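stuck on this chain:
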Amino acid sequence: MKKTFLTSAMLCACMGAFAQSDMDTFISQLMVKMTLKEKIGQLNLLPAGDITTGAALDTQVGGMIAAGDLGGIFNIKGREKIEALQRIAVENTRLGIPLIVGMDVIHGYETIFPIPLALSCSWDLDAVEQSAHVAAKEASAAGINWTYSPMVDICLDARWGRISEGNGEDPYLGGLIGAAMVRGYQGDYSQPDNIMACVKHYALYGAVEAGRDYNTVDMSHLRMYNQYFPPYKAAAEAGAGSFMSSFNLVDGQHATANRWLLTDVLREQWGFDGFVTTDYASIAEMKQHGFGDLAHNSALALTAGTDMDMCAYGFLSTLEQSVNEGTVSVSDIDLACRRVLEAKYKLGLFQDPYKYCDAKREKAEMYSAANRQVARDIAAETFVLLKNDGVLPLQKKGKIALIGPLANTRDNLTGTWCVAQDPTKYRTLKEGFETALKGKAQLLYAQGSNICRDAEQQAAAEFGKTIARVDDAKAKAEALAIAQQADVIVCAMGECADYSGESSSRADLNLPDVQMELLQALVATGKPVVLLNFAGRPTVMNWESEHVPAIMNVWFGGSETPDAICDVLFGEKSPCGRLTVSMPQHVGQEPLYYNHLNTGRPVAEGAQHYQKYASNYIDVRNDALYPFGYGLTYTTFDYGQLAVEGNGRNYTATVTVTNTGSRAAHEVVQLYIHDVFASIARPVKELKGFERIYLEPGQSKTVSLPIDQSALSYYNINGELVFEPGDFDIMVGPNSANVQKVTISVK
């Protein structure tokens, strides 16, 4: 039987906007009753066996829960299964402490939204927050109360597969998006559809050398504070309930056992008051870095500020012995245990352990029509039109050929990290086209090629999302025959879903071999060709940019991808995505990012020719093929003269933008600054503001973008925000490469 230890007084504020004093009292009284073993059990987190997102483990979770050896479980799908395990924790243990239940709900539960990189390209913070809230509604209805999201790692190297899971290369925009995701997931914890966010990967995981996953990271503190830390800080200040430590080294120490990182910066400088979990088996992996055995590394991690051990069994199997040996104190364990219990209190689990196991909500919320419509609308905002020689939007008439290996797949369009998805519910792109064109135009279809010529490479990249292997020569011949009958050709090509994501680094960022051969043959027919480029990262599209009449980066748009693509392709909606990454001309440019430092021998931005004894390449220009912030639409915009006014340390940049075309559309007006003279070198440009506006044909709007002291400041080596008076370049435009500039002197 469950042992009752709660009183009505203790429960008075377990849900919602709780009082800190009530929580402190409740947790203190509970911990007095706990044995050391029970406290350590709260620090142990294991997968429940449904979904593999790391090395497979036989966890025997039911027995471990009953023994008090688990504080949380993760990656189990289904309300009934979660409720059964929660019942063991609540009714069959001495103190009845409920479980926290996590999952990698990265960009949706069953209603899948665009991958996070794509979401960032919407530049629509309300939409980003709404996507997180819908994900939380569905996950919470199925028993999940904790998500390992948002990932706010800055990534400057497109070779790294997990760039797909982040928000691009800019720290300012990345911080805004991370905070929006936290708000969308957590709310104020007062509602049954509020779940706890887990910000990851803390820290610097996106800076792995050579873009190779799990690799080494090394950088100065100045770079950490100014380029990589801001999104983590913004998410912490937004009230994120938990953080996840990263796999990599920071200052030569493992991030999971780095006290400066986890305690000095995260808790003391930024005021974070939640708990920290490791990534998958991170403590066990410390041995490979050369830090000793499991007991030693577990003690290091705990005393550094790590509170929960995911999958390594380090805390569970060694901490009691470490207390006896004096390498860990009971107070260290108490502090970590308190943080985990506080998280459960904030979620309302002590008041109602089955709060997240509501059969009616599960039935009503899962992949509902309302959720699908939100996902469809948001997906349409993320597509980035890179080129259009008048081909788009397409008309629904004549014969339209849909060709490519991604045209008739059901689960690859959602992208990586969709662990709870049900692809049987989703349409293929072919089915979406058939619905959109029914009774208006004839659709012709051919797969045309494999993802790549090498079957082993394709199988490695698919991770269970199989695209049928075909004979490339026969498939290409079939596609060309169909293309000859068509008035226009739409190519669904690019990466399959798990060509990007965790453990999916790529050294070659070009369109894979057989797809490129097919695309070149289709363009050679002389028919208008539209390339829908599916990707989880910036890819190299030099040939495509020169020869294909229309290119739209559709990333991986989620479960509603087919309908959202049709909405934009056929002109019901205008494309409005803007890049949050720099698209390279060649993989040899990586890492490539707009907000770089200058050199003593720079070449002019966009310089077309090689210059000896200057910082450039012999064989490729320095600049991006498509720059950060770039994106076209079905209309054109004119920017008036930039004006910057103000005094003291508060200014406003003002510009009038006019829709000079024939279609209504969104524009993203972007503000950049450059500190001309500073005590440390500053980037050539830094995004410090933007406004997303909607203009009807012929309509004008005056956009005013504020510039305060914080926008003109930078962090010193101690993480302190520093302002230095002097000259600043203020730049405004539609992307980072196309700006007007005004220089101001700030006293």
Notes: The two ends are 71 Å apart (CA to CA). Residues 125-141 form the longest helix (17 residues). The chain has 22 helices and 26 strands.
